[in-house]
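Continuing from yesterday's entry. The apo prediction looked reasonable, so today I'm repeating it with pyridoxal-5'-phosphate included to see how the binding region is handled. Same sequence as before; SMILES copied from the compound registry.
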Amino acid sequence: MSLAPFLRADIDALEAYTPIMPLDVLAARLGIPADHLVKLDANENPYGPSVAVREALAELASPAGALRNAIYPDPESGMLREALAHYTGQPASRIVCGAGSDELIDLTMRLCLTPGAVMLDCPPTFGVYAFDAALYGARVIDVPRDAAFDIDVAAIEAAARQWQARLLFLPAPNNPTGNPLARTAILRLLKLPLLLVIDEAYYEFAGETVVDLVADHPNLVVLRTFSKWAGLAGLRVGYGIWHESVVRHLWKIKQPYNVNVAAQIAAVAALGDLDYQRQCVSRITAERERVHAELAHIPGLTPLPSAANFVLCRVSATASATAVARAAGLRDGLMHRGILIRYFRKPRLDDHIRITIGTPEQNDRVLAALRELA
Ligand SMILES: Cc1ncc(COP(=O)(O)O)c(C=O)c1O
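Holo prediction written out below.
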């Protein structure tokens, strides 16, 4: 039967986004038990959530708490937004929570993008932006980063004017390159007549934010997540900070019960135990510096400076193999040893590998394997 009478032609033609493979599926495929795998491919927190989070979730699973699972979650994530107001210094009225920041990226696009509307993208960057924009039939105009993977502010300004662009997402620091985004560049871009979304998914590792600018800039959005620093990627919880004049429209278009009960409880508990989260972050950033220094000593690898919880590493060619073949080969060689890292088959990234910072033991394993393979 032909699906043409009812299926959207643009969705029919769309290529699926490639997400990370679930650990148990990979374990079965590699014939390695899941708990022997070293997962350094999705920038998750290797230490997991705090004891306070685990206790809050256990309480939800207990006979006394279990009924809360039978009741729809607070559609406004009220307690979580209050806790976030305290954490961010922003009023709760500016905050909306989502099922991961991925959902908030999608909602922001729903707010701005109609078919044919233009979104600017600055590759190499987080792939979800361009992927999601296509779902709205938007036109994505690339404004590539320079050789150091910094954005080209003048080129963005020119493209914004030429295409009357509505939207631009910029991670700060950028994923997968790890470089920070200068506040001066953000201030300049805020003069453009488009919605500028600064994606601070890795804020806690970098320590720099522009949330303080939202009050005076209705065209600025700051997105954050509990997936990276707080060890809650599996529960899917993120939040964004929008100017009051914009946030009221978000409430109209959000699915009512988007953040589940467990995610709200876990995120509130995480914010109540900041000492633990900060300890994890400082262990990870100390390890980032150690891993970077060690990688720099491995012949054929050039790690890039990173302000996040991962390091992107350029791989050079040898007499017998291209850089692209070597980078893909390193990913495969590591995978066969049960170590998962990220390789992007994309322009300007296909001769790189990205390694998430794990525990010291995990990092030692990946470093030892790379010394053997490189
Ligand atoms: C820059 C950036 N934004 C957003 C996300 C998505 O995070 P979440 O798990 O909150 O959907 C990621 C995850 O890798 C990311 O790197």
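Comparison notes:
- The two ends are 51 Å apart (CA to CA).
- Residues 43, 100-102, 126, 171, 175, 199, 201, 225, 227, 233, 238 surround pyridoxal-5'-phosphate (CB under 6 Å).
Will overlay with the apo model tomorrow.
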